[in-house]
Write a structure and sequence with these properties.
Distance between the termini: 54 Å
Oligomer: single chain
Radius of gyration: 19 Å
Helix content: over 70%
Order of helices and strands: HH
C-alpha cells in the first residue's frame, strides 16, 4: 500500500510540474501572438468592469 501511495505522490508532483511547464509555454505563445504594440497596450491599460482590482 505504501508503494501505491509513493507512486501516486510522484505522479502528482510530475503532473503539477507538467501543468506549470505547459502554462508557461502557453503564456509565451500568447505573448508572441499578441505582440502588436497597439493591441497589447490597449488590452493592458483598458479598465475592464469585470476586474475591480484594477479600478482605483
Amino acid at each position: 500500500m505504501t508503494n501505491v501511495l509513493m507512486l501516486s505522490s510522484i505522479l502528482l508532483v510530475f503532473l503539477c510540474f507538467l501543468v506549470q511547464l505547459s502554462y508557461e509555454n502557453y503564456a509565451n505563445i500568447l505573448h508572441l501572438h499578441h505582440s502588436h504594440p497597439s493591441h497589447y497596450h490597449h488590452h493592458l491599460h483598458s479598465p475592464s468592469p469585470h476586474s475591480p482590482l484594477l479600478s482605483p
